[in-house]
Write a structure and sequence with these properties.
This protein has helices at residues 7-14, 19-36, 71-95, 120-139, 155-165, 176-185, 199-209, 227-233, and strands at residues 58-65, 98-106, 109-116, 168-169, 213-214. By secondary structure, the chain is an alpha+beta fold. It folds into two domains: 2-40 and 173-214, no CATH class; 52-168, Alpha-Beta Plaits (2-Layer Sandwich), CATH 3.30.70. It has a three-stranded antiparallel sheet.
């Protein structure tokens, strides 16, 4: 086909499939790029938006590194959630802007994954106001958590900590990465303009600085038929 390029393009495109190139890129090329043109580690959480629809069903992917990542330490984290789950969920009900929340253990981390409406800082403040004293039992098992206990007395510190440990959410539009990195470095956006062909390099460097990210804003929707309608149709009731 005409758009396949010449032989040189084919050789370059095939390089990622070569074992020697993967080794070289991991241990030589990418570290050299990161040294010459380091990418800023972009902050976690959703970005502010003036569009009302963008402030609904926002994601929080909070990754909290455990002090003790051994099976015993992980069991303690599981018990801390199990012993306080009713209070935590009741508090989330009282926050009033949370669609869902769950806790998961992933390798050396305990993670809180939630979807909420509105402003991030207000969400965390409301969460601490309702379940901060209970959530302290979880924070006590996390690296850096002791400095924030009780969280009710360190609200702003806790908000900053959560923001730092929330996954960076990549934009649904890949080229936005250029503007986000410019903003993080405090320089005018797209100055100088970046050729589109440099986007893969920019993404690689961002993943070098920020290995754990959320890919895009996620799918958000309101089902056309509610659970209540389904139950009523089946005659199940509540």
């Amino acid at each position: 086909m005409a758009n396949e390029g010449g032989w040189f393009d084919k050789v370059v495109n095939d390089l990622p499939n070569q074992g020697w190139f993967r080794f070289l890129s991991r241990y030589v090329v990418v570290p050299y790029w990161a040294w010459r043109t380091p990418a800023p580690r972009l902050p976690g959480g959703p970005r502010a938006s003036v569009q009302p629809s963008e402030n609904l069903q926002r994601m929080m992917n909070l990754v909290m590194p455990l002090k003790d990542p051994s099976p015993v330490g992980r069991a303690k984290a599981a018990f801390a959630i199990a012993q306080n789950v009713d209070e935590i969920f009741a508090g989330l009900d009282n926050v009033g802007t949370v669609h869902f929340a769950r806790f998961v253990l992933i390798e050396d981390n305990i993670c809180m994954i939630s979807v909420y409406d509105g402003d991030f800082s207000n969400y965390i403040r409301d969460f601490i106001a309702t379940v901060g004293s209970v959530f302290d039992a979880v924070i006590a098992l996390v690296k850096g958590g002791d400095a924030m206990i009780p969280t009710a007395h360190h609200v702003e510190t806790f908000i900053d900590w959560v923001h730092a440990h929330d996954l960076f959410q990549a934009s649904d539009f890949p080229t936005d990465l250029f503007a986000l990195q410019d903003a993080a470095m405090g320089v005018p956006p797209n100055s100088p303009p970046r050729p589109l062909r440099t986007l893969p390099r920019a993404l690689i460097l961002q993943l070098h600085a920020n290995p754990n990210i959320s890919l895009g804003g996620g799918y958000r929707a309101y089902p056309g038929v509610s659970a209540a309608q389904v139950r009523r149709k089946f005659g199940v009731g509540w």
